[in-house]
Write a structure and sequence with these properties.
The structure holds two protein chains of two kinds. Chain A is mainly beta. In chain A, about 0% of the residues lie in helices and about 50% in strands. In chain A, strands 2, 4, 5, 6, 9, 10 and 11 form a seven-stranded mixed beta sheet that branches. A four-stranded antiparallel beta sheet of chain A has the order 1-3-8-7, with no helix packed on it. Chain A is globular. The chains are: A mainly beta, B mainly beta.
Chain lengths: ~110, ~110
């Protein structure tokens, strides 16, 4: 099936540890995104990438890092510098950055313990 | 920066009642999209509006884009329990970026 696959679905992290969330898409989309969702805060853009080997910071990039070595993959690393990382993380993709709808993965729940 | 304000934050209705959520932007939007997120799920695209004053319908859902392209609304007629979820608008600004509203969480009492 075509779509966006995020893993893991649930992740627990100890304070001070980095963690990487995986996002793979087989839709042949050029643009990929990472959003963070907190209760009552809607969706906030962390990073986005329009082409391979290029990415831009979104509204809340501090404490996060990404890479885009392949068109299909856009992993997100939540570093220990992120002060409040417990949240629901959504990966998304679209055919190109402007004027197109965004397709979301099923999300990853990250909890810091 | 550009913001898209969405109201109300929560709405509780009796099944069969109508529901409306509103989005407002301080700047002109090139288009606006609507998404629905079911409880425990991920946002799913519903529709995109592009033209000034555009109105689109999907069964019981009616979407409007304001004449000035700064506001939009989603109206659901005769809500059903399957309508439960959070509805997000997302406006595309002049820079091409997509700006999400904070969403309206709809609950429907049978």
């Amino acid at each position: 099936d075509g779509g966006i696959t995020q893993s893991p679905k649930y992740l627990f992290r100890k304070e001070g540890q980095n963690v990487t969330l995986s996002c793979e898409q087989n839709l042949n989309h050029d643009a990929m995104y990472w959003y963070r969702q907190d209760p009552g805060q809607g969706l906030r853009l962390i990073y986005y990438s329009q082409i391979v080997n290029d990415f831009q910071k979104g509204d809340i990039a501090e404490g996060y890092s990404v890479s885009r070595e392949k068109k299909e993959s856009f992993p997100l690393t939540v570093t220990s510098a992120q002060k409040n990382p417990t949240a629901f993380y959504l990966c998304a993709s679209s055919p190109w950055d402007r004027g197109n709808t965004i397709y979301f993965g099923e999300g990853s729940w990250l909890t810091v313990v | 920066g550009q913001q898209v304000m969405q109201i109300p934050q929560y709405q509780h209705v009796q099944e069969g009642e109508d529901f409306t959520t509103y989005c407002n932007s301080s700047t002109t939007l090139s288009n606006i999209q609507w998404y629905k997120q079911r409880p425990g799920g991920h946002p799913v695209f519903l529709i995109q509006l592009v033209k000034s004053g555009e109105v689109k319908k999907q069964k019981r859902l009616t979407f409007q884009f304001g004449e000035a392209k700064k506001n939009s609304s989603l109206h659901i007629t005769a809500t059903q329990t399957t309508d439960v979820g959070t509805y997000f608008c997302a406006g595309r600004g002049s820079q091409g970026n997509l700006i999400f509203g904070k969403g309206t969480k709809l609950s429907v009492k049978p």
